[in-house]
Predict the structure of Porphobilinogen synthase.
Amino acid sequence: MPSVQFMHCDASELHYGRRSFWGRWRRTRFAVEKIAAMQRVIRMYGKATVPVLSFVYEGKTYDILETISFTASERILTSCKALGVDAVELHDEAAPMFRDIEENGWLVNPWSR
């Protein structure tokens, strides 16, 4: 299945695009110097929890890249921070556990290794 979202960041702009239900792309550009506190957060949509990248741009909160994995969000935040984006890097004590879950799944016996 083709992706319905994309993100590209360089030293001056962050480009984000999302394909609508009808197949049309909606693209948005954000100036890097105006982006504040980009981070991975968990949002509640009804009863579902969805991980997203969130940031504040000119006083408005934007959520992009829904259902992003933990390792992908780590790489994106580290890369964006290197390009000058105000990104909050993940220094979570549970980070090794999340990486292990993504690599091996939930139903792995930790004592079998």
